[in-house]
Amino acid sequence: MPFFVAPELIEPVTSALLGAIDVDDGPTDEQLAVLRAIVTHLFERPDLDLTTLTPLGPEEAADAIRDPMTRRRLNEILVTLELCRHPETQAQIASVEEYAHAMDVGGPHLDICRRWIDEGTERATEDFDRYYAEDLPTLSEPSLRDRYLRLADPDLDLARRLEALHDLPAGTLGWHYIEFYRRNGLVLPGKDTHTPAHYVSHDMNHVISGYEPTGPGEIALGAFTLAMNDNDANWLQFVANLVIHEAGLLKHGAIEPKASTMTREGATDLVGEAFARGAHCSRDFSQADHLSMADWPLDSVRAFYNVVPMVNPMV
Known about the structure:
- This protein is mainly alpha-helical and 315 residues long.
- The protein has helices at residues 10-20, 29-41, 58-64, 68-82, 90-103, 108-119, 121-135, 145-148, 156-163, 173-184, 196-209, 215-228, 232-245, 267-279, 298-304.
- 55% of the residues lie in helices and 0% in strands.
- Helix 6 (108-119) packs antiparallel against helix 7 and helix 7 (121-135) packs antiparallel against helix 13 (232-245).
């Protein structure tokens, strides 16, 4: 289901978000910048002035927002803002929990963030890895997940099969997929053992959406796929992108954690636009059989899913 908020609920949702990040000395500049980008791009309300809205507390917000899916989306945006607060604080964690309780929503993010603040990165990583393992099949390439979900040793036959996609005509999805690996100096799935079926799917999503594997690009891809289909697997993937690339909370495979990625120039608008682009797709390609479309022209794939062009393409 696309990530939309009804027009009449945009102001109370935004007011609730403002209330939830008004802790300690108030919201940070980064949190406000991310919220402003979401309001501008996803909610399409650039006229909404955050400085004139009256923040809503947890119970007020629950009274004003009754729709379960809107509550879920409010919670997801709130977690995004929570992980953009540096340093994370007990007060911010507690505030998110209060709003989640009032809205009767939950999820693995609450456990991960609470464990992080209470017991440290190692225990939070254990929680994350457990939840991630449950959703890994859903996030993996359908035709590969049975055999290549995990590998004990490299499988060079798989790597050669993928490399052969570059023999397809220039401009096809498969050809662009290999160009993505070559351009970014990435190791093809199969040449190492790092969840190959997942990375085929993940990187096909990079190619179709147009986001490069930078910190901002990874967060934007997570926002795009979540907005395209707000399901539990896409939500956990987005949380993963945030805790790795924004909160600097955990290391995932060879990916080193980073902090404050959203403070980079253009990052907030990139992610705000990603929410909007994903929400306007006509169908979900995040868990599609990408290899079955490898011989399609990339432009045709994007047209089929109504992937609108980026204002400032990364490639």
